[in-house]
Predict the 3D structure of the following.
Amino acid sequence: MQTSLEQRNISLKSDFTYPEGQVTGDEKLLYQVFLNLLKNAIEAVVNNKSQKEIRITTRCDENFAEIIFADNGPGMDPVIQDKIFNTFFTTKSGGTGLGLAIVKQIIQNHDGEITVESSPNEGTKFYLKLPRFKNS
């Protein structure tokens, strides 16, 4: 996605502080999750007049690795937030309403959870929590 970010003057910042936070899962499905969230973040910030920024952060506790996708886009009001994981719900013209529903299903199938925090004019953060891999 580097070319897409550069063409749109979007800054991608990352803080992968916890490389030991390994998870077990289907690499292709998790890639689909990360790609979908990154594409959504790009679409959210692309029309910003000022700095366009996406930040991906990781953190861990004893049981979970957490990946946070944050953008400084327009944010969402609570009514929209309550519906974004519903199948076929979309706010995009030409959108299918499948992206975030599939993301949620994939994360749940990996025994994880996804939540969103957003306010109008404050940007959006998606929190993914996945169980950490543990050697027996």
Remarks:
- The two ends are 36 Å apart (CA to CA).
